[in-house]
Design goal:
Radius of gyration: 19 Å
Order of helices and strands: HEEH
Number of helices: 2
Helix content: 40-55%
Strand order of the largest sheet: 1-2
Distance between the termini: 63 Å
Number of strands: 2
Largest sheet: 2 strands, antiparallel
Strand content: 5-15%
Length: 76
């Protein structure tokens, strides 16, 4: 089985998004007869998503202020 950390960051983010969708669509846990399924904690998934998105963003920018823009407004 492939570990999540072995995948490229964008693939990891895709897997986390799929897990979040599964929790939102099917619930956190359920039980059928004697079998039970508990999915990952939604709060943890969201935290992982935010951290990974920040890492992807940091890796894609070339400088400290890579996503900063300057606007100049000259009088009316």
């Amino acid at each position: 089985m492939i570990e999540l950390n072995d995948l490229p960051m964008q693939d990891q983010l895709d897997q986390i998004n799929k897990a979040i969708t599964a929790v939102l669509a099917g619930g956190q846990n359920y039980k059928i007869a004697s079998r039970a399924l508990t999915r990952a904690d939604l709060g943890e998934l969201r935290a992982m998503k935010a951290e990974l998105a920040a890492k992807i963003n940091a890796a894609s920018t070339s400088s400290l202020l890579g996503d900063t823009f300057v606007a100049e407004f000259n009088g009316r």
